[in-house]
Write a structure and sequence with these properties.
Layout (H helix, E strand, L loop, with lengths): L1 E4 L7 H16 L4 E4 L6 H9 L2 E4 L6 H5 L6 E4 L6 H9 L3 E4 L3 H15 L3 E5 L5 H7 L6 E4 L2 H5 L6 E6 L5 H14 L2 E4 L5 H11 L7 E5 L5 H13 L4 E4 L15 E6 L5 H13 L21
Parallel strand pairs: 1-12, 2-3, 2-4, 4-5, 6-7, 6-8, 8-9, 10-11, 10-12
Helix pairs in contact: 9-10
Length: 306
């Protein structure tokens, strides 16, 4: 089978940094170590860190402040998605040590929001509801930061306000563009500061411009990962390809390959490289007429954090 590994794909610098910080902390910290949410949105990484002694407290229905209530001792790690200053302050008030693994791009967006708030702007933040990155940004000033998820949210605003519009770094660059353009049409005074991180941007552009001959696409990544879901949506909606999200080779349904000739493979920014490479290598050797090529290999868990 012809296979194209769509590049760039996989780990971004922020994810590499967060995993490295968590792995080092797990190796060096003697006291209880707790990650406040998934360090990055990938269950394989979470489980690999658990095996090294780093407990993760995660509940999609809870905020970071609420998750902190379950931690009474030791050290906590702030995930790559960042957190509000209130979370750090509350942790330190409980006597906990705090290690910050926030993505530098997320921190940059927080700094931008704080700067523009001090200049008198109200902030319109394009993001996903209850996503930890959005949560952290909104905590900066809940009264002056408004979460924007659709044009309808923009329609409800005071049209004469003084606004800065920015966004969660892992959003679809196409969705952000369209919402920003709409905001410029209907608001009297709005400044645009698109904050799609460069790694997300170039991965989404590569998906949008994939080889037209590709007739099926596999996006390897965790369903919790917003940037992974956005890659899949762009492949399907913008590029018009049959697209499937899979967590690993274990989730690859061979029946999907029937009648297909050219597969494209990409992965989210928090997907271990070994998982994506395993899918690519398997598909390249796959022959529908040779059952010997249908046996999927086992996952090498020792490679997950590398």
């Amino acid at each position: 089978m012809k296979v194209t590994g769509i590049t760039p794909r996989g780990y971004c610098k922020g994810v590499v940094r967060a995993i490295s910080i968590a792995r080092k902390a797990a190796e060096e910290t003697q006291e209880p170590l707790t990650i406040l949410g998934m360090i990055v949105h990938n269950a394989y990484i979470v489980n690999a860190l658990k095996d090294r002694g780093a407990r993760t407290v995660e509940d999609a229905s809870k905020t970071r402040m609420e998750l902190l209530e379950d931690v009474d001792e030791g050290t906590i790690i702030i995930t790559a998605h960042g957190a509000g200053d209130q979370v750090r302050e509350a942790a330190e008030a409980k006597g906990l040590k705090v290690i910050d693994a926030s993505c530098p791009d997320v921190i940059r967006t927080h700094d931008l929001i704080k700067e523009k708030l001090s200049e008198g702007y109200d902030i319109l933040y394009i993001g996903k509801p209850r996503h930890p990155e959005s949560e952290g940004a909104l905590m900066i000033n809940p009264e002056r930061i408004r979460l924007i998820t659709s044009k309808e949210d923009i329609d409800q605003l005071d049209k004469s306000g003084h606004y800065l519009i920015t966004n969660q770094t892992t959003m679809s660059l196409f969705d952000v563009y369209h919402l920003c353009e709409y905001a410029k049409e209907v608001l009297d005074d709005v400044t645009i500061a698109r904050e799609i991180c460069n790694a997300t941007k170039i991965r989404q552009e590569a998906i949008s411009n994939m080889d037209p001959d590709i007739d099926i696409v596999f996006i390897v990544g965790d369903p919790h990962s917003n940037n992974t879901r956005k890659l899949a949506a762009i492949a399907e909606e913008n590029a018009g390809k049959e697209t499937h999200m899979i967590g690993s080779i274990d989730d690859l349904d061979l029946s999907l390959l029937e009648g297909k000739h050219h597969a494209g493979v990409s992965s989210g920014a928090s997907t271990p490289t070994c998982l994506t490479n395993q899918v690519i290598n398997f598909l390249r050797q796959y022959d529908p007429d040779d059952p010997g090529t249908h046996v999927k290999p086992a996952i090498d868990y020792s490679q997950i954090l590398k």
